[in-house]
Known about the structure:
Elements: H1 4-15, H2 20-27, H3 31-40, H4 58-67, H5 72-81, H6 88-98, E1 118-130, E2 133-144, E3 150-155, H7 160-174, E4 180-183, E5 190-192, E6 199-200, H8 202-211, E7 214-217, H9 227-230, H10 232-240, H11 249-265, E8 267-268, E9 273-274, H12 275-282, E10 298-303, E11 309-311, E12 316-318, E13 327-332, E14 336-341, E15 344-350, E16 359-360, H13 380-388, H14 393-401, H15 407-420, H16 423-436, H17 441-456
Amino acid sequence: MLDQNQRTSVLELHRQGHGVRTIARVLHLSRGAVRDVLKAGTATVPALARKEKADPYVDDIRDLYALCKGNLVRVHEELRSRGAAFSYQALTGFCRRHGIGTEPVKPAGEYHFAPAAEMQHDTSPHQVTIGGHVRAVQTASLVLCYSRLIYIQLYPSFTRFWCKVFLTDALHYVGGVCETCMIDNTHVVVLHGTGAEMVPVPEMEAFAERFGFTFRAHEKGDANRSARVERPFDFIEKNFFAGRTFADWADLNRQAVEWCDKVNETFSRHLHGSRRDLFATERPHLAALPVWIPPVYQLHHRIVDTAGYVHVQGPRYSVPYALIGRQVEIRETKTTIDIYQGPRLVASHAKLLDEVHGCVTAPEHRPQRGEPRPPREPLPDEVTILRLEPQVGPYLTALKAHAAGRVPRLLRRLLGMVREYPRAPLLAAIQAATAYGLYDLDRLDRMILKRIAHDYFVVPPVGEDDDDR
């Protein structure tokens, strides 16, 4: 069939007065083809009116498509049972041409980013061999939209803590900050809302303010908006993970950084240069990192168990045995577990990521064989009681011996009595309780109230009228 350009040439030569034979010779066409064009009198290519085998069944196909819930295999089976004699391939082609079960292809858009205008962050699950075992990991990636500079790390899970750890390491790797960080509508960052109405979690918003960028989320269903970071995940799966095994998490993330360095320095025909070359142009436009970036940690509060350990995300970590029964503060960082008692660091351990039931014990945290246990320091409430009323000391010692694990609660109540009740009735009641071995603070409270009843409450004489009262 002649195209529109050839038809236009035939009509133009005929308008100039050339005959059919001359036009056919000049354009290397048959005389019959020239006559057909001249007979049509237009350069528009006629549409093919080819009859299809499925034309008589078009209504049946539409009804069966809805009945079979879009399964064309079942549609073809039903049509064959009704006498249709065309193949499954003919059915699928007919459905595509007539828009049955398919939507027209929409053109892809383009996004243009200025240097340092935007960076995109996302995660993707993968299967990786670590220490000889295949396990699920979360691959976190950050890509600068202008230069396509990429940075990846892998974690056992992805929470707000790991998100802050990753972004801190990524911005250190880049050496600067873009104005905006585009994310999907993940609960790790999003408090509520989607797209332009997204409101970030205050914790993550404060983290972004520290570095000087803002979180933005793409509109729901518009995944192409974050294609800069979405597209490389397939490349990571087929290039970085292919044929690689890793000894542990440190080896995995070390090799990930080496792979990023290699990819960023490789020439790309699509970019007409390497990512590092484009980053050299983008680098002066990036905002500078803060002068001081505090380490990211997750805060926990634990009470040291009777074995001298604290539990953090599954594994157990030893604490100096003198702190058994005491509350400690734990700062979980990327690689360490730091244990504080008040402002003092009392223990630090390497963090276990894989061993759910693992145990880390420092030899200096266990007593030497035959060494007596050091005396425990008095609790703060006990110190306050002895400072306010030293004569309560013998009763306090006996009360602790009979407390059976309820010492902190009983000390708080006794401290309240010392602060609220007069000194003389209090000491008299405690002296009597010590003599009779009474360590029930409810009874002690009644004994004190009995001694101060006439001092604080005026009881009227019997027989007085209510008006006189």
